[in-house]
Amino acid sequence: MPIPFLPASAHVLERGWLSANSILFLDNDDAASVVDTGYVLHAAQTVALVQLAMGRRRLTRIVNTHLHSDHCGGNAALQAAAGGPASCTITVPVGELQAVNAWDEDALSFRATGQQAAGFSAAASIAAGDSLDLGGLRWRVYAAPGHDPHALMLFQPDARVLISGDALWEHGFGVIFPEMVGEAGFGATRETLQIIEALDPACVIPGHGAPFVDVAASLARARSRLQAFEADPSRHARHGLRVLLKFQLLQQPSIAREALRAWFEDAELVTRTARCFWPDCDMRTLFSETLDGLVLAGAARLDAGLVCNAEMG
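Now predict its structure.
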């Protein structure tokens, strides 16, 4: 079914929760661009989906809303399939340009979160206040800090369509990673939600999940969730740990419980979060509590010493 308000030159490739959505733009009869490219384990699927959607056009540009691994994991494969850097450029948020071109996996958070990405370099950057031509339309760039301090959103004012990345989903937003280690992020998230409200989009294309049009309801849910996290930051920290554990299950749908525990106890972001919120905690106990939370939510199940991914719903 056609998505209300979505320009005819834009095609949303909705993905599962390991990969972020990709938005393909038919720039003209010969060229196409794509915003966000999914996770590296789905790179072959990303290439196939993009090639099918753009037909005989050539992919000439990749743009990333932010550089979490589930949004840029297909960059390298797509660029290679398009003929390499001379044929297809990569544009990233300006705050990440230096880290990506040095391929600093610590600065890019891949190592700390236990996620993977294939190396690539960027030829250009974008910042809040810039504009991009995508699909024959001019898109304005807005800062979207909170989930990621360097994240950006794209807004098309004529069609009133917002590409929100992980700043706003229909039922929430991405983990506010700075807050997991005691750094400010809640205030930035609130400001980002205010920006979205002021833009008054008719349709939002989120980083995960289907595009949606009842933006006011989504903003109300997001603010309620944010208020609860602000009232109890440790609740948000526990939520973040469950998300990190769930992502491991999306990468490895069946894994020995002890292997998963070993990863949990060694992961940098997990240990930093534990030191920040529960400095005297036993890591085995924290792992058990985190896993129990996933099982209770229906996001994981236990089977004879294995932890298995489970689809919620």
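The chain has twelve helices and 14 strands.
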